[in-house]
Specification:
The complex is a heterodimer of chains A (373) and B (484).
Chain A (H helix, E strand, L loop, with lengths): L7 H35 L4 H4 L4 H19 L10 H6 L2 H5 L3 E6 L4 E4 L3 H5 L3 H4 L13 H8 L14 E10 L14 E14 L14 E10 L14 E6 L5 E4 L3 H5 L3 H4 L10 H17 L1 E10 L5 E12 L6 E10 L21 H11 L1
Antiparallel strand pairs in A: 1-2, 1-5, 3-4, 4-5, 6-7, 6-10, 8-9, 9-10
Chain B lengths: L2 H10 L28 H22 L1 H4 L5 H17 L17 H11 L2 E7 L5 E4 L3 H5 L3 H4 L13 H8 L9 E3 L6 E3 L4 H7 L3 E9 L6 H10 L7 E13 L19 E10 L18 E6 L5 E4 L2 H6 L3 H4 L13 H14 L3 E2 L3 E4 L5 E12 L6 E10 L11 H6 L8 H9 L1 H6 L3 H4 L9 H17 L10
Antiparallel strand pairs in B: 1-2, 1-7, 3-4, 5-6, 6-7, 8-9, 8-13, 10-12, 11-12, 12-13
Helix pairs in contact in B: 2-4
Classes of the chains: A alpha+beta (373), B alpha+beta (484).
Protein name (chain A): Hypoxia-inducible factor 1-alpha
Organism (chain A): Larimichthys crocea
Pfam family, one (chain A): PAS_11
């Protein structure tokens, strides 16, 4: 715009134009605000939430809501009839879970988060809905997360791709160990065990041009926290034992409960590496689990076999946590909560060298057998 | 409160990405992030406008009428309002909001989505008697029992007998088993408590989380049942491990659907119940699906110390090699290698320790119990401690190779008892061991017709093994010490 001397007429008309455009803009903004307000009101949100939303938030919540509806609208009609009890208990599913529920779109947007996310991470449901999961997870876990989101469509082999997903990520947590909430700027990382499936919404609604919409993949996950051993809220039954290890996984302590469960005296294990007690067919999986443990700080092993003292093995599931030194933040030890899932299987089966210590020498056994025959 | 602005501030803070899960202040580096922190107001404004525009575009793609038309911002927003009104108010909306309470996702829909994420079911049991007061329909997919089969029954009738005690412990509202030791978060040391106040606090909370084995209904066709059992990691008797999480709740008898025989002493009393979701744990160790035809084991896994000594053999080894585990354990694999194969295997041994990659051996001959040889091929990899990065042991997956004329020494009736890759059928292994005697005393005459060395000087092979070891330790090239 020229700022030089302008004839008066032109100046007046340009000023009027500017004024008109300002008025038009103000009017537009006013209308816009009105519509945004309306939109916020239409969303099924508690009033306390909808009344304090800014425009960007209204947009992300609206988009998430519509994406969820699209995802659900094409499902099999639910034919079952609900009893009163059924109905009453519908809300109990979420309450019974230790963690929260999350639906991720293909590009990683958190299009749905259950409200109990606040009990797990301190963050509020509607503060996060619509944001990208990558904004709230540890950068070192992003690559893994991206891989989880990929849905390979059926190949020529017509083999069903595996839709199961089971992985660990670190998410921002604003809860302190005392249950207070801190600002998101001071958030810590919390390890979450995510398990679920990649699903595809079989979109039957047609576009206006008569073509079918492409199927939309999404990831439904249940995200469970792993209790820190110093803060276990649930009672541990007699089929559970605690153990502590140095970082190379040698036992430094084991709860005496292991004796009735597996036969070992805790002293037998001191300074022995836990890897000696894993069934060889599970060692591959457990190695990967331990890599995860050292990278992220916590892990849950899934079911594996641990050798019993005199023969055979038990099925175990372990929650392992790295304990860090408070002063220098260096990893100090690993504490394991071990859930023994079965009794000793195949008690007579010798699998490892350690188990032979109690066994009679072979010659003797052979003689006994010959006598039997 | 919109978190996006505080998020960008968070991102721009300087923090180090450590593995520290418990530190409060940490720095964060977004790798490869191209976010340029806005420096001027106009740049912030531009970003905001761009963001809003992309939101509008996305919204337009979700609103039917707005989709294929180029509408202005205001119109898109107006269409969106109409669309949502329609979605919420439509007759097709089966999930009428309870008490007009707005739900971003109604409970019923949430329940269905949850079932897509995990194989699980909701159950309610009375803590005193273990009676199943409710179980959701989804239990059918997991345990193959219908709701009607289970409601009103005792939970204990559907548990593995050895887990009944454990579940009883979990159902009691004041758990008497007190943990004597708790972990001190700061030092990682285990602090012994006097078993009072602190432990009681831990135990009398309302939440529960435990594992137990539940029965699967075996009425299905045996084959289909067995394969589904394997998928669920159930054992032969048909139990699957369920992880239950939930809470204790006090319910008055009127709320709960009790049967007509309402015991007199329950009247007016609140029932303490456990409301929990039971989830089938996903498979962690993949296993081959059991084939219909029982197959002789052709593969076994063994673990060796760095020097080659057997420290672990799985139960299939005995079926294939005829040695008892205790005969193998503690001995070196060099004692069993055919003379002519030692050089190659020693080189593989050296490689697997050095390279830390998986090594496939060529076919080689291994001496079995009766002195004859079978041909195997093995895959070796050295297991390194994830922390120290030192090799702890070598894991060997050994596969029998069927070459012409060499039949594996396995009796047919044994083979019907042993199924390949079956990790859950444990009782079979003991039966297999029991029939070992037959195998040893009965020589397979067919094998004797072949040209192989039936006798091998044990001392020679032991010496060979020692030589190889020395070479390995000295880091020398094993070929120079060839035992040929």
């Amino acid at each position: 715009m020229d700022t030089g001397i302008v004839p008066e007429k032109k100046r007046v008309s340009s000023e009027r134009r500017k004024e008109k455009s300002r008025d038009a803009a103000r009017c537009r903004r006013g209308k816009e605000s009105e519509v945004f307000y309306e939109l916020a009101q239409e969303l099924p949100l508690p009033h306390s939430v909808s009344s304090s939303l800014d425009k960007a938030s209204i947009m992300r919540l609206t988009i998430s809501y519509l994406r969820m509806r699209k995802l659900l609208s094409t499902d099999e009609p639910i034919a079952e009839e609900e009893t009163d009890l059924d109905f009453q208990l519908n809300g109990s599913y979420l309450k019974a879970l230790d963690g929260f529920f999350m639906v991720l779109s293909e590009d990683g947007d958190m299009i749905y988060l259950s409200e109990n996310i606040n009990k797990c991470l301190g963050l509020a449901q509607f503060d996060l809905t619509g944001h990208s999961v990558f904004d709230f997870t540890h950068p070192c876990d992003h690559e893994e997360l991206r891989e989880m989101l990929i849905h390979k469509t059926g190949s020529k082999k017509a083999k069903e791709p595996n839709t199961e997903r089971n992985f660990f990520i670190r998410m921002k947590c604003t809860l302190t160990s005392r249950g207070r909430t801190v600002n998101v700027k001071s958030a810590t990382w919390k390890v979450l065990h995510c398990s679920g499936h990649v699903r595809v919404s079989d979109n039957r609604t047609e576009q206006t041009n008569g073509q079918k919409e492409p199927p939309v993949p999404y990831l439904v996950l249940i995200c469970d926290p792993i209790p820190h051993p110093s803060n276990i809220e649930v009672p541990l039954d007699t089929k559970t034992f605690l153990s502590r290890h140095t970082m190379d996984m040698k036992f430094t302590y084991c709860d005496e409960r292991i004796t009735e469960l597996m036969g070992y005296d805790p002293d037998d294990l001191l300074n022995r590496s836990v890897y000696e007690y894993y069934h060889a067919q599970d060692s591959d999986h457990l190695t990967k689990t331990h890599h995860n443990l050292f990278a992220k700080g916590q892990v849950c092993t899934g079911q594996y076999r641990m050798l019993a003292k005199r023969g055979g093995f038990v099925w175990v599931e372990t929650q392992a946590t790295v304990i860090y030194n408070n002063k220098n933040s260096q990893p100090q030890c690993v504490v394991c909560v071990n859930f023994v899932l079965s009794g000793i299987q195949d008690e007579k089966l010798i699998l490892s060298l350690e188990q032979t210590e109690d066994v009679k020498p072979v010659k003797e056994e052979l003689q006994l057998e010959k006598k039997r025959l | 409160m919109d978190v996006s602005s505080s998020t960008s501030r968070f991102v721009s803070n300087q923090i180090s990405s450590s593995t520290d899960a418990t530190s409060k202040n940490f720095t964060l580096k977004i790798k490869g992030s191209s976010t340029i922190y806005p420096r001027t107001h106009s740049q912030t404004e531009k970003r905001r406008r761009d963001k809003m525009n992309s939101f509008i575009d996305e919204l337009a793609s979700l609103v039917p009428y707005a989709k294929s038309r180029k509408l202005d911002k205001l119109s898109v927003l107006r269409m969106a309002v109409q669309h949502i009104k329609m979605l919420r108010g439509s007759a097709g909306n089966r999930y009428a909001e309870v008490n007009h309470k707005p739900a971003f996702l109604p409970d019923e829909e949430l329940k269905h989505l949850l079932q897509r994420a995990a194989d699980g079911f909701l159950f309610v049991v009375d803590c005193d008697r273990g009676k199943i007061l409710f179980v959701s329909e989804s239990v059918y997919k997991i345990l193959n029992y219908s709701q009607n089969d289970l409601i009103g029954q005792s939970l204990f009738d559907y548990l593995h007998p050895k887990d009944i005690g454990k579940v009883k412990e979990q159902l009691s509202s004041v758990v008497t088993i007190l943990r004597e030791k708790i972990i001190d978060a700061k030092s990682g040391s285990l602090v012994k408590t006097d078993g009072n106040a602190h432990s009681l606090r831990l135990c009398s909370g309302v939440r529960r989380s435990f594992f137990c084995r539940m029965k699967c209904n075996r009425s299905m066709e045996d084959e289909a049942f067995l394969s589904s059992c394997l998928k669920k990691n159930a054992d032969r008797k048909g139990f699957c491990t369920i992880h239950s999480t939930g809470y204790l709740k006090s319910w008055s008898p009127t709320e709960v659907d009790l049967d007509e025989n309402n015991e007199p002493d329950n009247e007016g009393c609140n029932l303490s119940c456990l409301v929990a979701v039971g989830r089938l744990h996903p498979h962690t160790v993949s296993q081959p699906v059991q084939s219909h035809v029982k197959v002789k084991p052709m593969e076994f896994v063994s673990r060796h110390a760095i020097d080659g000594k057997f420290v672990f053999v799985d139960q299939r080894a005995t079926a294939i090699l005829a040695y008892l585990p205790q005969e193998l354990l503690g001995t070196s694999f060099y004692e069993y290698f055919h003379e002519d194969d030692i050089a190659h295997l020693a080189e593989c041994h050296r490689q697997v320790l050095k390279m830390r990659e998986k090594i496939n051996t060529n076919c080689y001959r291994l001496k079995i119990k009766d002195g004859s040889f079978i041909t195997l091929r093995s895959r070796w990899f050295s297991f390194t401690n994830p922390w120290t990065k030192e090799v702890e042991y070598i894991v060997s997956t050994n596969t029998v190779v069927r070459t012409d004329g060499v039949t594996p020494l396995i009796r047919t009736d044994m083979s019907t008892m042993i199924s390949e890759g079956q990790k859950a059928v444990s009782s079979v292994a003991s039966a297999a061991l029991g029939s070992q005697v037959d195998v040893w005393t009965e020589k397979d005459r067919d094998n004797q017709a072949h040209d192989y060395r039936t006798t091998q000087d044990v001392t020679t092979s032991a010496q060979a093994a020692e030589d190889v070891l020395e070479a390995l330790v000295a880091g020398q090239d094993v070929y120079a010490e060839s035992c040929a």
